[in-house]
Structures are given as C-alpha cells and as structure tokens.
Amino acid sequence: MGGFAPEASLPPPPMASTSGDDDGSDETNGENGLLALVSLDKNGAYFSVISYTCVMAATNNFSLENKLGEGGFGPVYKAQLAGGQTIHLNIVKLVGCCIHGEERMLVYEYMPNKSLDCFLFDSERSKLLDWKKHFNIIEGIAQGLLYLHKYSRPRIIHRDLKAGNILLDKNMNPKISDFGIARIFKPNELEANTNVIVGTYGYMSSEYAMEGVFSIKSDVYSFGVLMLEIVSGRKNNSFYHVDYTLDLAEYVSWNLWQEGQGQELIDPSISNSCVKFKVLRWIHIGLLCIQNNTDDWPTMSNVLSMLRNDSIPLPLPKNQPFSFG
Question: Which of 23, 26, 41, 160 is catalytic?
Fold first, then answer.
C-alpha cells in the first residue's frame, strides 16, 4: 500500500520546465532531471520516479473515496502500488515522487492507523493504547529522531514534531512523517537562523520561537512536549486559568511536579495498569527536554538511554519551561 501526497520533498526535486506545449514533455523533463536522485539506500531500497499515469491509476483518478485528509502542502490520498518496499524503522518511508506540469507529488508508505493524535486525544480510541504501547510509541519516536540527528546522512532537523505528524502502522509502531519544513544540516553545521518562523506554537523552543535559531535541540524540546502529551492524554494547550493560559509544560512543572503530584497527570486510561514509577520517570525526562536553558537539555541519545535504563539517575529540572502562555 502506498500513501500519496502532493507536497515538498526532502530534499526538493528539480523543478520541471513549464514552457512548451502540453504534450507530456514537462513530465519527461522532470523525470529525467530526477534520475540523478535515484540511488540505493543502506537497505537496498530504491527511491523511484513514478509516472503520473501510475499515480492516477493508483488513486482511482484522485477520487474522494481515496482521500485521507489534508497535509501541510495539500490533499493526501490512499494509493495501491505494485510491489513491496523496504521500510526504515520509525521513519515514514518515501517510496518515490512524481512531477506533472506544475504538480509536485510524493508517494509514501501507507499508515493504516493514521496519526497519533487520533488516538491520544479521543476518549474512546485512547483506551486502545495500554501503557506498554505508550512506552513503545515514546521509544520509537526517540529512535526516529536519533536516526535523523545522528545516523542520517545528511543530518535532518524536523522542526514540526507533534502528535499529528506521528503516524502509526498496523502494529501501532510510530513513524515520524511530514518533512515539509525540515532542514538539512551540513556535517559541520550545529545550528541555523531564520527570519521565517514555521512550525506549531506550543512545540517550539524559546530560541527558535523568539530568535529564529534552531538545531537538533529544537526537536528535543518538541519531543519533550509530545512526551508529556502522550503520558497525560492531553493537548499542550488544554489547561486554562481564569486569568491566563497555562500550557501543559507549565501545569506539569509548577502545579504538579514541584508539589510531588506528578501522578495526577497520568492518563486515566493507563493509570490503573501502568507501573507508576516508570511513568513518573517519563514525565521527569520530558521536563528535562523543555527546560528554558537549552544547555541543560539532553540529546536524543541521552533520552533513549534514560528511557531504557531505569538505573541511570536523572538530574532535577533546573528552571521553568518556556511557555507561550
């Protein structure tokens, strides 16, 4: 099965020529330009150039019945493609691309259980996620980020990690998706600066939201917020005060954690079956990822070690998390 989305690729494919008659030459020129991108990855899987005719057939002419929803760059369709694909663990597989005139289309592996937010924030579906699935999802996301930050060539900063961009396969394994605003870093590049702030408020670190500075630490902050959402089953912006808005980070850090009441944050759907000290440790790790001082944040390698080994001591969060509240 293949998921289809007309959106920007990472890295973006060469632009097809838009001049001349509509005789298919644009598509041909675009496909020829993309041949340079066709190569073997470490698993021996090819990145393919897929014809527009094939995409049309696979989506039944982009029928409404095959439409899955709207992505950041356009509609997303379900498609049936011939052949199987090798899939990298915890990263949604980019199967191929298609260029037709001014259209730019990407073909991804299909995720039958949609996105994580469809389960976390739904009172009925959330019951399908026991506490072990919660841990597997947290660990899987951490593994995916570690791959992007450390083992991917080139290094990739996602910049929009959130529950809606975590897709779930048939076994509820998480896969990071939607690389439309991701940035590629050079081998010796540690951070970058932008005047155009993109992403989702509530998941942005202070240095990125206020100054436009981003790095792998920006994804660490987003992961911390997402981790607290997974534990609580609550959206980051779901806590309110009569005089001002509290986001999840503030609520956990100051209203619960410092008062020794962190267990009140645990999602009721897992509170009776989970191992409390483990879930409280997850909350602690999440708070370490969203401290206001970026120098105190762990790397994703540190996060995975802390998640997998309960004997590793955790430092106390030093300062109040950044908040848009």
Answer: 160
